[in-house]
Amino acid sequence: MLKKKRAARVMALALSMAVVTAGLQTAGEGRRTEALSSGDTVRLSYDGYLRGTDDRYYITEGNGSFLYYNADGSTYVAKRSGEPDVRRRNLMLTDVDTGERVKGYCIEYATDVEKNSIYSSQDPASDARYFKNMPEDVKKLMLAAIYYGRNGINSVPVAGADDEDFYFATQVIIWEVQQQLRVMVRDSRGKITGTEKKDAHGLSKDFFYNDLKGRAAEKCYDYIVEKISSHYVTPAFIGESQEKAEAVEMKYSMKDKGWSAEIKDDTSGVFDLVWKSSDISYEKKGNTYCFSTEKALEGEKLLKVQRKTQGGSAAENLLIWHDASKDSNQVISTGSASPPQFYLRLKTDIPAEVTVEKRDAETGRPVAAAGTEFRIKSEDMGIYVSQGMDNPEGDIYKTDREGRVTIGERFQAGTFLLEEVKAPKGYVVAKEAVVFQVDGKSREITVRCDNKPQKGIITITKTGEYRHMESLTDIREKAMGGIDFDIIALADIVTGDGTVRAEKGEVVDTVRTDFKGNVSTKELYLGPYNIVERAAPEEYILGEPVNAALVYGDQETEVIEKKINLFNRLKRTPAPSDESPETGDDNPAAAAVMTLLVSLTLIGASSVFFILRREDR
């Protein structure tokens, strides 16, 4: 057999032990392997040739270019020639104290194994000589081969084969993996999609497969290959390492008062988990993986999870055996262990505490007023928010004296609509809902709801007296156009946000009536005003100032109207004169007319008096 350098032998031994250990899951051959433990000593021997159900021996070729492993994980290739074919035998290890006998596997092909050598065992976690330095994919496939292969626990998986067919098929796959003729297949993301055979280092991919092709062991071989090829195919969120595990975020539900996540994955529908976490629940529904918890997680929780398998098993009693006197000899494994576990990251999002704040739409300042009422609808769920989420009308939330209200429910991530039911006094109710988002990251969210302050206009109708046909006695009413008025604040005009919109005595508007005597002010903030007539025509008495209060109407009206009717009277008494009347008359005709009128008046009065006297008689 090929003589290797001492370092190479040591590597081979370590590798063999590691791989055999990883691969082999052999129960006791007539006794329980649990009796063997770290530190035990055994004697290596061969026990009969491997013969298939067809009564033919299993033989392997001894020549070729073979891959060897150094202790640091590096590899080299050495060529063997002139070696005879090898008729394979059962590799047995016998406990020197108890006589217990178990089967083992050769891990590294074409490495010396000497009969009657004394081997001592180590726990695989303590054996740092070689196995931990092997390529990860090699270790994983070896462990999977033993998990699904012949390990003393698993029964023969196919009809027409026996235990020796199963044993040889398992050994062939271990050699294929060790020689890197069978490798993992990965996609562009690095996710494992299966395994495949390939030529490597001058060795045909079918080098070992040809030794069982067409025989009963081939059926066992196909079975194991199918199992190990699918074992590491996982949903996207499951990682073969911590770094490759994608975080699954469980989202808070206002209905359930807990967190959950449902992930559909069509690429690995057969994958299922052996679940052991007590504070997180797991269920698989078809191709959907469901996780839930009632308690929020602090950051990400990394879980080591095991695949739920069919047809595979392990006694979890894996041991690594080294030749006690010759490091260069083969490393053997007994017992069995499960393949490496997978990794899953779970986290919970953050439900938000929502506070609604009332503000003035014009100034952006808070409106400190109690009693503003809201309700909130979840756009995603299509229902209103309430305690227990079971009130179809939704609960009503009222602001405090500061114009704020904190909702009692914690909000799940999603889109919500804030609907105002009752506006603060002095403001118009918000006619459109305020849309706000909960992102699942913020613990506190303040939603601002703006209201427009209600305003008003003062409409003035101005009329006045006039003498019809210049008559002194026929006084009628008409519209008075062109009359100017000042609108003056009677007090400080203050809106609900505390903003002084006008100071007392401030002229907020000046208006002039049209030809119909009508005029309206601009939109004014609610409050008391004085309407002051600036001037009146010469023949009219100036109107007195009139008070007009703009008072809050209903919350639906944006601008209220206050109507005021104003009236001007004519001056009745001529203005007195300081000049003495002149004697004489510069107009004789006018004097004659006046004399005639006085005479006629006297004659008329005398006639009436005379008639009345006669009737009395």
| Overall outline | rod-shaped
The number of domains is: 4
Mean of pLDDT: 87
Number of helices: 5
Largest sheet: 7 strands, antiparallel
- The N- to C-terminal Cα distance equals 182 Å
What percent of residues adopt helix (DSSP H or I)? 10-25%
Q: Which runs of at least 5 residues are low in confidence (pLDDT < 50)? A: 1-34, 580-598, 605-617
The count of β-strands is 39
Going across the biggest sheet, name each strand in turn.
7-6-1-9-18-19-8
Radius of gyration of CA atoms, rounded to a whole number: 53 Å
Transmembrane segments: 589-612
Keywords: Membrane, Secreted, Signal, Transmembrane, Transmembrane helix
Domain Thioester: 104-226
InterPro entries: Ig-like_fold, SpaA_PFL_dom_1, Thioester_dom
Description:
The chain contains five helices and 39 strands. The protein is 15% helix and 35% strand. α2 packs antiparallel against α3 (163-178) and α3 packs across α4. It is rod-shaped. The strands form ten sheets. It has a seven-stranded antiparallel beta sheet. It folds into four domains: 6-237 and 311-340, no CATH class; 247-309 and 344-348, no CATH class; 352-451, Immunoglobulins (Immunoglobulin-like), CATH 2.60.40.10; 455-568, Immunoglobulin-like (Sandwich). With 617 residues, it is an alpha+beta fold.
